[in-house]
Amino acid sequence: MSGFRHVVVFRWRDDATAEQKKTVEERLRELPGAIPELRAYAFGRDAGINAGNFDFAVVADFADRDAYLVYRDNPTHRAIVDEVINPITAERHAVQYVLEP
Amino acid sequence: MSGFRHVVVFRWRDDATAEQKKTVEERLRELPGAIPELRAYAFGRDAGINAGNFDFAVVADFADRDAYLVYRDNPTHRAIVDEVINPITAERHAVQYVLEP
């Protein structure tokens, strides 16, 4: 299916607590209901199979680039990033790319 | 849909050529035909919207963790990693996670 995908991986700070990590997931679950442009949204904790992995990933699919920008700049999303994600993030790397049909 | 997802993002070396980057994509296109366990496979170059992004992402979906391991260890896949991905990779970060239904 064609579209536009946002991929982001996080390494949490060593001092991030279990409660803080759980709060990230709870808050992100608000977003599909708040942002109709989110066509698919799936995040999760690393399964622990491979050494050296990051801790958490988010993959969000949209109809197109403009729909992604709505998500990126959505105030509820920005609040979650500022309030619960940034405080425990050690490293973050992202890619957005076109989904070929 | 439940399942298991592999997410990986790459930053290419500054001296990676356009030809090398194109070869990565051409070779990765072989994999869905070679690995039946690959339920969905979508990779792409960063769209250039956000400063500081990585260069390339791969998202691969599987029925479960065992199917992911088949992909990870598949000889064709390993050859692509060794021959065309590793030589141009400056940074690579991955997460595997369970897809909730």
Automatic annotation (TrEMBL), chains A, B:
Highest taxon above the source species: Bacteria
Any matching Pfam family = Dabb
Per its UniProt record, what SMART domains does this chain match?
Dabb
InterPro entries according to UniProt: Dabb, Dimeric_a/b-barrel, HS1/DABB1-like
Q: Which PROSITE patterns match?
A: S_R_A_B_BARREL (PS51502)
Q: Which residues form the Stress-response A/B barrel domain?
A: 4-97
Subunit composition?
Answer: Homodimer.
Its name, as the record gives it, is: Stress-response A/B barrel domain-containing protein
